[in-house]
Amino acid sequence: MQQVFPLYRPEAAQAKQSSHLGQALIHQPGRYAFIGLSALLLILLALAFLLLGFHTRKATAPGLLVPNQGVLRILAPAQGQVLKSGKSMSGFSNLSSQ
Question: Which residues are CB-contacts of 13 (< 8 A; sequence separation ≥ 6)?
């Protein structure tokens, strides 16, 4: 019959059981569990969004999009006069100073 040897010497096991520092106590506040559960919930929601969500395909259509009610009318806050249609007004800026 083969003799079975323990993994550690009996003296080492005895010293391990009676530590001069005392027993290690692990205490976690309740807010750590709340933070952990909140993070887990956030990860699960993100995964559900990625797996169950959908997107609309982009489509291009020729033509103009016009509202059902018609085009919006915008009125100027003060009356004015059109000098030339389609031209830039930067050349006329010095006319008001003359």
Answer: 6
pTM of this prediction? 0.37
- Give the separation between CA 25 and CA 79, rounded to whole angstroms: 83
Q: Is the dihedral of CA 8, 12, 17, 20 positive or negative?
A: negative
The angle formed by the CA atoms of residues 66, 67 and 72, to the nearest 5 degrees, is 95
The tokens describing 16, both together, are 């391990």
| 98 pLDDT tier (thresholds 50, 70, 90) | very low
**Are 80 and 89 in contact, with CB atoms under 8 Å apart?**
no
